[in-house]
Amino acid sequence: MSKHLKTLHSLFEKLHNIKVDSSGYSLGKATILKVFNATNSYSTEDILARLTLIDSMYSTQMSRRYYGLEELAKVLTEINQNKPLEKAFMDFLQDKSYNPFIIKGKKTNLFSEKYGIGKNGEDKGQAVSLISKYAYFETEFRFPIYDSIVREMYPRIWNYCGFKEQMPEIKANDMVSFIEAIDLLISKLDCTDVTYDTLDRVLWYVGKIYRGNLSLVLSMEEYKAFVKLYSKNKGGFDVANADLNLLPIPHDNIVYDFFVLAKELKLLDNK
After folding, report:
1. What is the spatial distance between Cα 157 and Cα 191, in angstroms, rounded to a whole number?
2. Residue 34 lies in a domain
3. DSSP characters for 183-236?
4. Predicted pLDDT of residue 19
5. Are residues 168 and 265 in the same domain?
């Protein structure tokens, strides 16, 4: 096993045993779970409340469309009347050529449909990211989250691991190719502690640090201390050039491990 794979295995093992931390990410996740538990009648209003919160906390931008959230809530309500949403999403994972989503009496690929319109009445496109995040919570974290950070970090982790076979292509807004790529990466990592949930958390945290967007990664106290250290840096924070020993985070905190991995990935990119 390569050194980098050992590093990732150790990180996943540590993450598997940590369910909550003080970051904005963990607080947001706990908040969404609480709302899901309180809105379990699966009425359109309940599902709309869930979607609105996810859209707000994950910045999926669905609220910027006209009628997008409402239309998607009605579709999910209809699907649930034919088959429980959790089962429908899990069936889709088991056989991605099969569409378990019944909309207007027809089997439909929920992820390829368009939701909402623009100011001029034109279609505004798919909602893959928002739907995948809804499915993630509906299935108790057993469905992979599709978003820009995961897509950005996927090839970096693949190259970091040094896998010899060609990296799979993840097509834009294509949930099938995304799931296939994530499944292959999990298989290649060959670690019992790697799940959709733990992989998403690693890619998300490391991706945020890689980009220099830290408000959801750190607690407010940590972020204030961080700003004092790096506010004078021209061009903002760049993990590749940062002295991680100066970070206002204990070295036994897993967030520190995410900073270390983000730095390694960025230094590899800069070679």
Report:
1. 15
2. no
3. HHHHHHHT-TT--HHHHHHHHHHHHHHHHT--TTTS-HHHHHHHHHHHTTSTTS
4. 64
5. yes
